[in-house]
Amino acid sequence: xxxxxxxxxxxxxxxxxxxxxxxxxxxxxxxxxxxxxxxxxxxxxxxxxxxxxxxxxxxxxxxxxxxxxxxxxxxxxxxxxxxxxxxxxxxxxxxxxxxxxxxxxxxxxxxxxxxxxxxxxxxxxxxxxxxxxxxxxxxxxxxxxxxxxxxxxxxxxxxxxxxxxxxxxxxxxxxxxxxxxxxxxxxxxxxxxxxxxxxxxxxxxxxxxxxxxxxxxxxxxxxxxxxxxxxxxxxxxxxxxxxxxxxxxxxxxxxxxxxxxxxxxxxxxxxxxxxxxxxxxxxxxxxxxxxxxxxxxxxxxxxxxxxxxxxxxxxxxxxxxxxxxxxxxxxxxxxxxxxxxxxxxxxxxxxxxxxxxxxxxxxxxxxxxxxxxxxxxxxxxxxxxxxxxxxxxxxxxxxxxxxxxxxxxxxxxxxxxxxxxxxxxxxxxxxxxxxxxxxxxxxxxxxxxxxxxxxxxxxxxxxxxxxxxxxxxxxxxxxxxxxxxxxxxxxxxxxxxxxxxxxxxxxxxxxxxxxxxxxxxxxxxxxxxxxxxxxxxxxxxxxxxxxxxxxxxxxxxxxxxxxxxxxxxxxxxxxxxxxxxxxxxxxxxxxxxxxxx
Length: 597
Hints:
Mean pLDDT: 80
Structural class: alpha+beta
Number of strands: 20
């Protein structure tokens, strides 16, 4: 049989770093990837068995392969990122954030203006940013305006026009916000000294400006110009206050990018902190939608490339939580302790808060998406064959074998379904036998659901370890449900999850949403069971007390409880009140029992 065009294309691929592109039968680009060795990477798609369904569908749809060889892995990363942004292939990670960000522009002109803009024009002007919010830009510009007197007019302040007296000072000059360069009251050198200081401020370097202001303040004080010295002192306080708010742990940490990632089944969130002279000068979190179960390493490498391009970062060193391959030009540091570790933890915290905010918004705006994400996460974490849309959890309650009861709580789509909760009084077990009680309750619950043709859950959770789980399995065996419903036991002490026929328990991350839902189920079952147990004990205790009264039978007790509700009210009732309910003879017996003195 002759080889297909695709087979020939794969065989002729080079063993070089670069980017590969998959096209479908309609010649549409459906996937872009990077690799150290293009041939090995592409061949693996067609020789490996892929467990994830979307990857199998991708491979099925590949009709042709194209490639681009590059010099280094870093070049491959950049090219892959640019192609994904440009063509948005169906099976690639989706970069969610495409808005335009604000910049601070220092205009290329004789007396440069400093202003915010969202348009970068290549006319020789300097642009600082982009910033993640206009609020940050306004804060910085407010700081600059408070420290330096700059012009805001858009006049062409050429030397010839100023000498010709073409312009007159405006209100800004009279308010003290501008020194009147338009009428020659300020020289170009004086103005540019301020621009140099502003440039350093925008880079996060406050040291030079602070030093310069201290020199000026001292000079004014020595010349007995105390009003001018006071104005400089006020500027120093403004700058020191701003620096204190933005300084991180160690001023020596300079010109470093920090990246961290938090991910779930469907999305990843990558936080970026840019440090300069010990200050955070930028923070941004990028949301990525997974398409082919990409690993955190793959996602972080892609996000770092995208963010550094987007924010025009040239830092030679980055801090990350694990090793990533970005080429030889960038130094990758994985902090283990001290200030570097603290700043990485701050980045992780920012990513987590961003994710939490997103999830809260999704809960409000699109509750179905939230439920779908939780269900997909639980399916993956608990190694289930289907999503646990309907979960039931059982718990036993007894104290020294008295009034043994059990509770069954039901969650649907990750939320309590209280109308489906059920209490059970243990009927066939004598004494405190949790294993036998669990066996009875599980049998009764699912025998009834089968008899009434009710839907069965996808997951059963047993509050207890291996013993309770084994007892529950006996009931499922009798009912023929073994293997049809997933069942796990949760042990209280270490939150171990036990599976049938598996001696090694599963331990979930203590912060995982799956474990939190299982704990919520277990706690709800415990609460619901204890509530029923207490009610039974209370009723038993009350009934026993009234039964101690000689000549008072069951019907008398029922009549009294219906009228007075509690034994305390019966004990405090007047004789005539009791007579009205149970007659003179029995009323006297009850009254005398509680008023023996």
